[in-house]
Description:
Elements lengths: L2 H4 L1 H15 L4 E6 H7 L15 E8 L3 H4 L3 H7 L3 H19 L3 E3 L17 H7 L4 E2 L6 E3 L3 E10 L17 H10 L3 H5 L5 E5 L5 E6 L1 H11 L2 H9 L4 H9 L1 H12 L10 H4 L2 H5 L5 H4 L1 H10 L1
Antiparallel strand pairs: 1-2, 2-6, 3-6, 4-5, 5-6, 7-8
Amino acid sequence: MTAQADNPMEQAKAAIKAYVLSRGAVAVGIIDADTVERIAPPGFGPKALLPQARSVIAIGVPGCTRGTWRSTAKVMTFIGNSVGPIYRAAFGLSFFLEQTYGQPSLFVPPHIDPEYGNRIPLQSLKLHAELAGIGARSLAGDILLHPEFGLLYYGSVLTEMDLPPDRPMDSNPCPSPACVKLYRAEGQTPCQKFCPVECLSGSLDEAGQIDEMVCDMYRCAEMCQRYETMGDLIHDGIVAPTELDREEILYGAEAQGFLYRVTSGIGATHAQCFECMRACPVVTGAPLADPIRMGEAKRKAAKAKA
């Protein structure tokens, strides 16, 4: 008998991964909850949400279709992410774990912690995925990249099951050889060069590995605020004909609605132009980067049978 057949937790791990993949995910990894606790900021580890958590299951779903990548930045803002499939795979997994194994499990909401403003998440899904071996940090604002799938979107499930953990990736796909070549020639990688507001910077070491990554979020936020309504509100307030009109513009319903969205993170467009990813050789060149490439083998097999 194999080691997996002898170990119930190994069997459970295999069943969990099979379930997640059947729900539309393409990558899944498991990490010990105590490991995450040692690295996450105090109060933001798994046990802050599930006190008896033993394992964290990280899930990755595909990013964009090829058609989406060829569309405009405005389109990418609305459909470039893949939050829906995360709910389907991860939320479903929490029910699967409890129904199948009788162990308390929790789908981690992929949202901000309302107690700390609109830039602090309840849990770092990025940290979970990185430790579980389904993504590695890139020069593009620390976005995780996968060597096979390029850009993925991540979700997590916490469980009291003590599952065998996976390991982080042995190597980072970022930067690609093409990125190193451009950096040597121009001092910038593609993601840095094509960021519309130059919010990305950093350096590579002599071996062509990431030495420093910098993301100036305020530059991106400035563009996003102009893209929405803040600039217009300020302009209209300045040229308002009366004091009452100015107060209505700056403190009325429209301004209140905008400020509510900003502070709560609703409808935020920060870092959603996708230009860094559109220029990334890892994202565009990964062997399974989009549904066209994912379905290539199936289409070839169907054509051969015809």
